[in-house]
Write a structure and sequence with these properties.
5-stranded antiparallel β-sheet; alpha+beta; about 290 residues; globular; Polyamine Oxidase, Chain A, domain 2; 2 domains; binds flavin-adenine dinucleotide; 3-stranded antiparallel β-sheet; FAD/NAD(P)-binding domain
């Protein structure tokens, strides 16, 4: 069973869709990767869930019809509850229980926290201080991400920009394959600008970043027909711990992009690594009760 406080599948691969416009306002693309992740990427490509983005950086692949499609596909066929904020994790010594507003679930044989390190730490620290200390070694940089829609295409611009002054990234989302046709731009501030403006008002940030984008590329942008800013407080992990966290005695673990280098690749690989650890642990505890599927 998976609990996610988000309203729909996505996490940091979220996509906003409004009529004829769509914006991937978290992760922008991924690349082929290595090892088991490369095999997964190939499977996603064959299933039509990933496609090359001609207007993106060399070798970039994007989820189709949205970055969130990758997560939607992974949720299909699994028990997932959205809008479920986990505030407490408790153990009676044999099983785990999770609770939060309108949520009280269990028993579970094992518990995994697959959230940013800063969000896992307070939940984990009540049960395992050693793991919590390892978690504290990694941190995330924030990112303000702005979604802007226009009635007409912004002519004469490349489909993406990287590192223009305080703006880390800007892209024409509708240049990605299988997107809605409306002219939709995603503009993401660098970590320093985002940190400095972390607590600023959402509307003010949206307009300031759009203006900043216009001035950095030297054009007078037309008035957008839609503009919204999203604050990712824990956007990009750094200081990765180099491994997943797992306590065999408690059957408690944690994974995410803060485990290994590679962002989306790290998130996926850490989940796969931890799943192997959990399966091996449960098998050792009760070999007759565990059935392992691929
Ligand atoms: C603006 C931005 C741009 C990025 N660009 C790229 C890119 O181009 N390429 C790339 O590879 N990576 C990029 N990344 C990083 C990439 O998105 C992440 O590395 C990856 O998505 C992390 O996946 P995750 O499953 O570890 O975490 P998440 O995607 O954050 O998933 C964690 C989930 O846990 C849920 N959650 C958190 N706390 C709780 C709680 N207490 N109870 C219930 N649910 C909870 C959240 O709702 C979320 O759905 C970007 C990230 C951001 C924010």
């Amino acid at each position: 069973m998976l609990f996610d406080k988000g309203k729909r599948p996505g996490g940091r691969l979220s996509t906003l869709r409004i009529e004829d416009w769509s914006w991937d306002f978290g992760a922008q693309f991924l690349t082929a990767g290595q090892g088991a992740f490369a095999v997964q990427v190939e499977d996603w490509r064959r299933a039509g869930l990933l496609a090359p983005w001609q207007g993106g950086p060399a070798g970039s692949l994007v989820g189709v019809p949205a970055m969130a499609s990758l997560i939607e596909a992974q949720c299909a066929g699994h028990a997932v509850r959205f809008g479920a904020l986990v505030q407490r994790i408790e153990s009676d010594g044999l099983s785990w229980f999770v609770s939060g507003p309108g949520l009280c679930e269990g028993p579970f044989a094992a518990l995994i926290l697959a959230v940013p390190a800063e969000q896992a730490a307070p939940l984990l620290s009540l049960h395992d201080l050693v793991l919590a200390r390892e978690l504290a070694a990694t941190r995330s940089k924030p990112c303000w991400s702005v979604m802007a829609g226009f009635d007409q295409p912004l002519q004469g611009l490349p489909d993406h920009f990287a590192g223009i002054g305080p703006i880390a990234w800007a892209a024409r989302n509708n240049s990605k394959p299988a997107r809605a046709r409306g002219e939709a731009w995603v503009i993401q501030a660098g970590a320093e600008w985002s940190q400095r403006n972390l607590e600023c008002n959402q509307e003010a940030v949206a307009q300031r970043l759009l203006d900043l984008f216009g001035s950095q590329i030297g054009i007078d942008l037309p008035a957008p027909n839609f503009i919204k800013a999203h604050r990712w407080r824990f956007a990009l992990a750094y200081g990765q711990v180099g491994k997943v966290l797992w306590n065999d005695n408690l059957s408690l673990g944690a994974c995410g992009d803060w485990c290994l280098p590679g962002q989306i690749e790290s998130a996926w690989q850490s989940g796969a690594d931890l799943a192997d650890r959990v399966a091996a642990s449960l098998l050792a505890q009760a070999p007759d009760r565990v059935s392992l599927r691929g």
